Amino acid sequence: MGSSNLSRSALLDGVEWNVRLSKVATPSLLAKFAATFDTYWNDPTFEAYDPTRDADRLDDALAEAGHRGGTGRVTLSLSGLEVRPRPHQSQMLEALDAERTGHGRHRNLIVAATGTGKTVVAALDYRRLAEEASARGAQLPSLLFVAHRREILEQSLRTYREVLANGSFGELYVGSHRPDRWRHVFASIQSLASYDISTIRPDAYDIVVVDEFHHAEARTYRKLLDHLKPRELLGLTATPERTDGTDVRRFFDGRTAAELRLWDALEADLLCPFHYFGISDGTNLADITWARGRYDDIALSNVYTGNHARTAIVLRELRDKVADVGAMRALGFCVSVAHAEYMAEAFTQAGIPARAVSGSTRPSDREAALNDLRERRVNALFAADLFNEGLDLPQVDTVLFLRPTESATVFLQQLGRGLRHASGKPVLTVLDYVGHQRKEFRFDQRYRALTGTTRRGLESQVEQDFPFLPSGCQIVLDEQARRIVLDNIRSQITNQWRHLVRDLRNMPDPDLPTFLSEAGVDLSDVVRDKRSWTRLRRDATKPTRGGGPRETELLKRVGALTHVDDHDRFRAYLRLLADDAPRYDYLEPTDQRYAHMLFFSLWPDGGKFGSYAEGLAALRAEAASRDDLRAVIEVAFDRARHVSSPLAGTLGQLPLRTHARYRREEILAALDYATLQRTPQAFREGVLNSDEWQSDVFLVTLRKSEADYSPTTMYRDYAISPTLFHWESQNTTSVASPTGQRYLRHRDRGRHVLLFTREHRSNDFGTAAYVFLGTAQYVEHTGDRPIAITWRLDRPMPTDTYAHASVVAG
Fold it and tell me: Exposed/middle/buried for 366, CB within 10 Å: 0-12, 13-18, 19+?
């Protein structure tokens, strides 16, 4: 409507353009409006505003927003209101819970950009652990929070007090502050070192939180971490890969418990939008030495340093893309100190004041350079070996990538230097200078990190000029850069298997998780279509066990088990795939259902077996396939990010767990619907009536493609809130029909409603699995043929599921 008045003259006679929508002519569009409104109305992010209660909070929030990023500090007052996590923080908390509860891991790392609320997550996590202790009748867990700056400690203490609604919680140990009780201490690493860490009992603190964990390699941090033995260790960092090449994830068995993706942070307006320009710089790096997954820095430096033709392109494109070069604050990433110094001199000679900094620059000189950039005495800093420490400057509004960055993690860390919000900075301008690369270099990793897309979808994204980006963001490749990137991505797809074989052949004899980590590839690179871990090992001349007559068909089905993420099913499948697997006839009823689920995952058409026992016996004869299946299941379960729970009452006998993921054949087998005479391959409906379990089962695909659904049904199934779900029946179902009455009166009839959702029909492994949201209760309904029903979930859906199930996300 724009600014039009909702009057007769404005809508009918005005010269201004207006749009009138009719529910009769465009019912699906009006339904989308209504659904979006309902979703916002029920979103806990929005609060009712009471001027007598909330005026001061609103004034403070408006003042902070008006000076966003100006000081880099957030003022927290004890408002008396409960601090609730934002969606991205809820996802992190759920992931932490899954690491501890599902995997027994108690050393966990959170990775998220500066300014996205990592400390709030740590405080909310502590509150949850404290509530669990209270429920057990235990005292409040002891806490040691460690950081390297007084400002961080003071702000963190205020955050914990706000989250716990306790203005006296915690004590500072920094400068002249010294604790009295020593139960909940916010300490600087310098104070702890002077106190003598060895005098602290190793088990003195139940929970230890280390902020800015990338400092952990420093001697005092290392001494502290080696000495203390807390029940829970939590590391917080924006930069897991340090300047010296050390990856702090090794303190956590190489794992990241929770990571805020760039895409999600931009969607939540936690970071500044970016305009990214990929620019061909005319260089050819095809003959540069490549070793250990990266270019040789010395050879790269020789190509770039003194390259006046390339520098002319850099300057020309900078002046073209940045409106006022004299007002910009730019950060350029270089391959060497010589390269950085050359670029600084070239810019200065071109009338753009610039300086060079590096890891060897004295701290005082580095701080002076940062102040010069902050005050615009210089317009550019060129950095070498200094991509994450000592460059915390929210005012940076331009980033120049002047060298190829092989690691997607390092690329994001460097990009993140400019993504902080700051006053007067509406957007970050990113110039990435692209040359012809060696075939080993992978553009797909950085663009997947930028866009949040899958490997399969990236090629079409590049071809279509990146149509799906967070609000305010833009990726533009010039014609030559676009051709280089597309050729590189297509070459990776074409030659990928050969590269995987080569990488595996050059390793001693890794297991699947180690290979994926060392080679930097996804599970879908190894397991898809006719690809498998067994085939890769054989092509790389690594030892495998023998196969039988069913091997080919079984290896094609390995991708059907890449989603297994609940502990009971994981253990059951491993037992059934073991060399000494129990015979089918000896299994308990629940284990027989797990056997049916595994059987139909491997043979959706029944495999022409006369009995389950016959099928499992055939599986026992396939040693190599079983090894492959076990390896993939272990990788899948290791990546589980939800805590699954059994159903209540009689449904607890089912081998289904809420918030776990299941493919259609597993669901049908678990409910005893799938049999050798009625195989899951023949089932095509999205609803199932199980009289045996007195349940109606709904299988919902949220993102319906136009190829499979009509426009009028594109938005009919969606989450209204984490506990409310809008669902529409089949078009033939009326309120008065037996089916309609069964839905609407399920409680009166002692029946259950089970809801499963998935985002898309397929993924990189084939048919996608559903997330089991659990049981649901009828709330209300409207319409007829179809019936629109609102269900209330007995367990709130996972935060990441709600993020894409919400109609707002569509």
Answer: buried
